[in-house]
Amino acid sequence: MYIALALHPFADAAGRSDLERILFATAKRRRQLSCAPYTPDSVLARMSHIAADSKIKVRLARHPATPLDTLRELVSCNDSSSIIAVVAAHRNATAVLLAELKWYGSEAIQKALCGNRNTSRKTLAEIVVQAPPELQKDIARHPNADANLLRDLWGRGGVYLRGEVAANENCPADIQEMAEKDADVLVRRMLASNPAAQVERLVRLLNDPAPQVRAASIRNLLLPPEEVETLSNDPSNQVRRSKARRAGLSTNLIERLARDKDHWVRRWVARNRTTPDEILRQLAEDDIAEVRRAVARNPSCPVELLHELARDPNSWVRAGVAFRDDLPESILLKLAQEEDADILTGIGQNTNTPLRNLKRIAEHSDKDIRRAVVLNNQAPLVVLKLLLDDPYPLNRAMLAGHPVLTAAEHLRLLDDPEPQVRFTATQMMVRKSIKNRSADTSKIKANSAE
Amino acid sequence: MKILVPVKQIAALDEDFELLDDGTGVDPDYLDYELNEWDDYSYEEALRIMEANDGENVEVVPVTVGPEEADDALRRCLAKGGERGIRVWDDAIEGSDPSAIARILAKVIEREQPDVVFAGTLSSDHAFAQTGMNIAAVLGWPHAAVVNHLELNPGDTKATVHRELEGGLEEKMTIDLPAVLAIQLGINEPRYASLRGIKQAKRKEIEVLSHVDIGLADDDVGVAGSLSRVRRMVMPEKGQAEIIEGTSAEKAARLTEIIKELQGVA
Q1: Which of the residues A63, B74, B117, B191 has the least number of beta carbons within 10 Å of its own beta carbon?
Q2: DSSP string of B182-230?
C-alpha cells in the first residue's frame, strides 16, 4: 500500500486507477489515508470523489495537504457545519472560497474564519457585528482587520481586546496614541510589540514604568540600536536581557552587559554575532557553562577560542563546539575521540568529519548517536550503507530520504518491514527518475540545437 | 532454565472510532494492533537473562492467546530472540476475560514447566492488570507484581525483586521459584529487532494449540468460562474539562479564578 501511495502522484490516469484499487481496498485504509500526514494531495483529491463516509470527509477537510479544489468540492457537496468549519480553518482555503461559506448561526464556522489568515476584511466586518468577546479578540488579531474595524473593536472595551488591537500592524495612529496612555501594562506592552509602531512612540515607551513594556520596545526591531543605549543600568533583568540580544550595540554597552550579574544577560551577549572578540574571550572564561557554550555557538567566535572551548571541563560546552561546520580538523579529530553523546552527535552531523570517525559513529550502540550520521547531508555512501540495516526504524526512515543514496539502496529499502521506509524510498526513486529523465531530455534538446 | 513470557497483541484506537451496534466494544475497523508495551519490557528482561548466560541453558518462549493475527506479536518477540513461540486459539475462546485467559495460560505453563513466568503488569487496551496474578492464583505459585528490578540467574531457587510502590517507595523481596512476576515499564530499555532478526523470525516455529489440546473444555473458556462480562462500552458525557484559551495573561487570570473557586474564595 505504501509503495502504491508514493507512486500515485507520478502515475498517469490508468496507472492511478490500478493503484487506487490497492489504496482504497477497504474502509479502514480509506480512513487511514484520509488523515495520514504522508498522503499525497493527488490521493486526497481522489478520495473526496469516492468517499461517502462523513468521517472521511471531515478528515479530508482537516488534512493540511488537501488542495483548494478538493476543499471546494467538499463544501459544495456537504452542508454539514462540522465539515464547513474545518474547511473554514484550512490554510489552503482562499479568501474567495471563505467568503462563500455560510457562517451565520454557527459559532464554530465563525471562529474558524476569524482564525484563518486568508479571511477577507469584508467577511470579518460582517462577523464582528454580533461577535462574542472571544471572536472579537480573534478579529482584532487578524492581519486583514483594517483601521475602521480595529477602531470599532477598541471601543468595545476589555483590556485583552484593546491589547490585541494595539498589537495589530493596521492599528491607526489615534488608537496607538490612546494605547500609549492606557492604564493597563498589557495594552502598552502589546503596543510596544506592534511591528508597525512609530519609532517615536517606541522611544517614549523605553521610559515606561513597567519593565515588560520597556523590554518589548527594545525587542521591536523598528527601534534603532542607538536608542537602546539610553537605557543603561536598567534595574530589570528582563530589559537588560532584551538589550543583550540586539545587534549593533556600542562596545561600551556590550562591555557593561558582559559583566552583568544576571547570567542570561551574559549568555545573550556571548551569542550576539556583533560582540567583539575580546569580550568573547572574557565570556569564554565565565563561571557559568551555558555562557561559555553560547560563545562556542557564536558564529563570530574566533578559532583560537574554539581550541580553548574544546578543552572545557563541561561536556555540554565541548558539544557546542562539535556542532560547528567551520571547525579546524585538529579540533574535530580530538572531539571525535570523546564518548559523550552530545559531542558525538555534533561530530556525526559535521560535514567535515573524516570517514573513519563517521564509520565509528555509524556503528555506535546508541541509536540517537547513529542518527547523527543520517542527518549529515554530506555523509559518504559507504557510511550510510552501514545504516541500511539499523534496527531503529526512525533511523532507516530518515535515511531513506538521504540525498546521497542511489537507486540500489532505495531498491533495497523497498523490502523494509517499516511502511514509512518503503514509502520514502519509493518517493525518492520516482523523484530521482523524473529528474534524470528531465536532465536527459534537456541534454538531448541541447545536442539537437547544436 | 526456561522463561515463559505471555504477551498480548493489544488494540489501539483510531480517532473518530465507532462502537459496535450492541455497544459491547469498538468496531474492529477502527482498531490497529500492536504488541502490548509492558510485554516489550518483560520479554526484554527474559532475553537479558538468556544473553547474560551466553544463551546456554536458557530458553525464552513467548506465548499468546489470540487469533492468527496475533502471530505478529509473537514474531515481533522472536525477531529479538528466542527460537519458538506458542499461540492458543479457538473460536470458543472469543470473549474470554482475564480469569479465562489466565486459565488457558496456566495450562500452557503446566505443559511447558518453565522456571519462571514474566507477564506484563497490565495491557494498555483493557488495563485489567489481573492476568499475571490470576495465573499465579490458578497455579498456586508465588508471585510479585509491578516488578521494576530483578536479580535472577539460571539454577537459582529464589529471585530477588524490587516492586514499585506509591510515592517513589520500593519494596525489596525474595521470592521462591517457580514464580509469576508481573513486570513494570522502565525495568530495562527494550531493544529494537534487527532487520536480520525480523527476517529470521518469519521462519521460526509457532505452535498453535486449541484449548482442547491443553485439556480445557468449552465451558472453561470464552464467555462461559469468564467471571466477568462486558455489558456496555460508552463514551461518557464530556463537560468536566474546560479548555482555557487566550494569551498567557488571560490564561493565568482564568486559572487564578478557577483555583479561587476550588478553594472556596470569592
Answers
A1: B191
A2: EEPTTSS-PPPPPHHHHHHHTTSEEEEE-TTTTT--GGGSTTTT-S---
